């Protein structure tokens, strides 16, 4: 006999209170900034890091993968641990682990030490990120204030994605590759020192037994899925490693569903997906992550490999995009109040798609002001509105005892989407570039043609997301 009974009711129904909740939001957003930043800031430092630690190109890919695998794989478990043991407690534990691992990464004298530190970073981020979003939902239970808070949250996430390239280039050039890890330490210590004074310990928690079989199978499924997508980039879709990891991901996922249907206290109650907005929001987050990660990767390489920009200039050219994103994220709550979340989200995704199509038209000798500034601003506007509204949909109607789970689902969707988008769209770009080279095109022209297809693919994904968003439930003001 199967059951999908929800977890037992929260022990403490009252959400955490803070007389300075907007300051608390700023500190939580700072922690989220670290998590988002760390996914991109390391990229610029990889060549220098590889020379000093004598790491091959294949080994350098593991500097990224060692972080992404535990992060993406443990997010749902991290969210459920936060629900079970307290959101503030698990958040602080994640911060301690993150800054400790960052310090170890900066002190690394060998590749093994660095990869181990990156894995701990990823696991700690999987505790930190869903707990932080859960704390936000408790601090701002009213829909109006929550929408404003999510505007701040979305803006910070966008800044982190765009700032990684800029900060990575500046820090690596001035202070060495170690500084891209050390920068996390003082910021993390500030978060660690202030949160206990801003958010009370009395939080909503779930009682009962933690579903360890469910935790093991979903972690295995997510790690295998992210690993398979990473293997596609490094070895190809038909490589034995890719096929084995894909089969493992499917087997783990099927086992997880069977376990969740049969246990009385599931890690992820399948009934949570009956919340239409949560389900729609997570699908859109996955698609948005696919478009966003591929975009930032391709834009960075296009500017350096084709246009000849150095790392610092490449970072500076992304400031207009980040600025537009932040401004629109701040205005999004007012737009949502006037137009509704669904209309705001659909409009934002259409603008994002238009900006990507415009960007795809950039030639191999493009100048920033003439051909890149306009699409960058439009992309930033679209992303700013989409970040806020998708996050709001994904936590819409979630009870306090499942807010950590909701945060884990949002972050998991974004991670899986990012890995999927990068694997698929970069493969399309590489195939197009190779075809143009064989046809006799010069290298810059061939690369531009490949990136053009990538940008068009990302635009298509954004439009699919807009269609999916149209199925969201009616607005809640």
From TrEMBL:
SUPFAM superfamilies (alphabetical): MFS general substrate transporter
PROSITE patterns per record: MFS (PS50850)
InterPro entries xref list: MFS (IPR011701), MFS_dom (IPR020846), MFS_trans_sf (IPR036259), Tet-R_TetA/multi-R_MdtG-like (IPR001958)
CDD domains, sorted: MFS_MMR_MDR_like
Localization, UniProt: Cell membrane
Domain Major facilitator superfamily (MFS) profile: 24-477
Keywords on record: Cell membrane, Membrane, Transmembrane, Transmembrane helix, Transport
Protein name, per record: DHA2 family efflux MFS transporter permease subunit
Residue stretches spanning the membrane: 22-46, 58-78, 90-107, 119-140, 152-175, 181-200, 212-232, 238-259, 280-307, 319-336, 343-362, 368-388, 451-473
Membrane topology category: Multi-pass membrane protein
